[in-house]
Amino acid sequence: MKPAIEISGLNLFYGLFHALKDVSLAVERRKITALIGPSGCGKSTLLRVLNRMNDLIPECRITGSVLVEGRDIYAGGEDVCALRKKVGMVFQRPNPFPLTVRENVAFGLRVEGINEPGAIEQAVEESLKAAWLWENVKDSLDRSALELPLDQQQRLCVARLLAVEPDVILMDEPCSALDPIATGKIEDLMIELRARYTIVIVTHNMQQASRISDVSAYMLLGEMIEMGPTLQLFSKPRDRRTEDYITGRYG
Ligand SMILES: Nc1ncnc2c1ncn2[C@@H]1O[C@H](COP(=O)(O)OP(=O)(O)OP(=O)(O)O)[C@@H](O)[C@H]1O
Ligand SMILES: [Mg+2]
Questions:
Q1: Phi-psi region of 149 (alpha: psi -120 to 50; beta: other; left: phi over 0)
Q2: pTM reported for the whole predicted model
Q3: Fewest Cβ atoms nearer than 10 Å: which of 32, 38, 73, 251?
């Protein structure tokens, strides 16, 4: 099967700073790929490349090619809004909109011009169920999303992007604001979502990477050092630098 994402010869500059150096990788469909590496190595930068969030940063320049489902997302004429629906993102801090629970999930649909109440209700229920939040919020859909506990806010952010039917879900340290129980729930949810979506997660938690990911990629100072099946990368890393990092000898 062709990979969901194929990056080749990617270089990214913030002004004069060379943040990603000749990065190539293929992300397999319906797998969880973990990006690991020390702070500042370029994990978030690489994740943002995949849905062109870096477009918002002045002075950010990219060379190389990034194919998502076979399309070069940096080729001229690409519809960035459509891309961000297909490649959704969940951040470190849950960032629900200051709207009701229902309107958070319905947001993307309304942007697309879908307002028919039956269609909205159905999509809201399905997305909340798929994000394991329905039982928590089914009686409070009109409550402000900002009143939910943090872990429910994070699952609401997942529901919000599921509503627009993405192919790829990017998660940048999605559990870093959560306690271990809420973290476990997000991890279990990711494992279930993997059956339908391609997931790329950034994590500083090596246990998390080894628990949930199929493939791991170790980055250092903007370079992709090593990528492979998680079991192999954690048990028999090929590169000394990977070994130093996963055994805690880095830095
Ligand atoms: N908007 C920006 N402008 C200039 N430099 C940036 C910008 N964003 C990130 N950088 C720099 O690019 C490098 C990679 O940053 P990035 O945030 O991708 O690292 P990271 O691996 O996600 O780190 P962390 O684990 O701390 O989140 C860092 O040196 C950072 O200072
Ligand atoms: Mg980061």
A1: beta
A2: 0.96
A3: 251
